[in-house]
Amino acid sequence: MSHSSRTNHEIDYRIFGEEMQYVEIELDPSETAVAESGSFMMMDDGIQMQTIFGDGSRQQDNSIVGKLFSAGKRLLTGESLFMTAFTNVGHNKKRISFASPYPGKIIAMDLLQLGGMLICQKDAFLCAAKGVSIGIAFQRRLGTGLFGGEGFIMQKLEGDGMAFVHAGGHVFEKELQPGESLKIDTGCIVAYTRQINFDIQYVGGIRNTIFGGEGLFFATLTGPGKVWIQTLPVSRLASRILSYGTYNRKEEGSILGGLGNLLDGDGR
């Protein structure tokens, strides 16, 4: 399919940085980008900002009830009721930038080249060209619903424009062949294409269950399709930071715990 067949706004972009990245989007006159509230970083003069319900896509029901329903669905993914649209109202190209919320990578997803749909973690979406629909994807299987954790309610990006998602740590892409499976921690999944079959599998084994420390279940992704995987889910990062911020640290129960605290500056 050629670029001329796009129905979403066609935007140019550049990604800057290493650990704390930002994406710079170039807007032609009358072009619009939509983004999550709080992701805005900077923009040229001549770009108009407007807070909107839903995502502003053509797929969205424009009635009052439709807009409320679309915005309400976003609450289920932990996002704000509102999104922000940035439109170039000038006569020349303008640039706007959106920043990543925590250390990691910004990934550019061309939905036209990915079959028109992408399923991603509920906090992964950063911004997109106007026309991209941002909805929710429920995992329908009972096991997935009960035990899927972070992978139960996910975001669904639909359209033929550019979308940008953010993930923690290092991110890599893996293409699964038909029937090929990958077992993965649910929090490490960034996104996958529509053909991928997502399921939850029990780890098994009494020792794994009690002493494994990796949870009772992991996700099974079966091809064909593409999968994007992150090394540092934000939930894991937050948990580690919280553990260091509490009084009872892990090493305090060991023989060298007190000495270790003195060496790293914690003399309590």
Shape: globular
Classify the fold: give the CATH topology. Double-stranded beta-helix
Spatial extent as radius of gyration: 21 Å
**CATH architecture type:** 4-Layer Sandwich
Q: Supply the number of helical segments.
A: 5
What strand order characterises the main sheet?
5-6-3-10-13-8
Short description:
The protein has 268 residues and is an alpha+beta fold. The protein has helices at 64-76, 142-147, 206-211, 234-245, 257-263, and strands spanning 12-16, 22-27, 32-36, 40-43, 47-53, 82-88, 94-99, 104-110, 117-120, 125-129, 133-138, 153-158, 162-168, 171-176, 181-184, 189-193, 197-202, 217-222, 225-230.
Architecture overview:
- The protein is of the alpha+beta class and 268 residues long.
- The protein has a single domain (10-246), classed as 4-Layer Sandwich (Double-stranded beta-helix), CATH 3.60.160.10.
- The chain contains 5 helices and 19 strands.
- It has helices at residues 64-76, 142-147, 206-211, 234-245, 257-263, and strands at 12-16, 22-27, 32-36, 40-43, 47-53, 82-88, 94-99, 104-110, 117-120, 125-129, 133-138, 153-158, 162-168, 171-176, 181-184, 189-193, 197-202, 217-222, 225-230.
- Strands 5-6-3-10-13-8 form a 6-stranded antiparallel sheet. Strands 11-12-9-16-19-14 form a 6-stranded antiparallel sheet, covered by helices on one side.
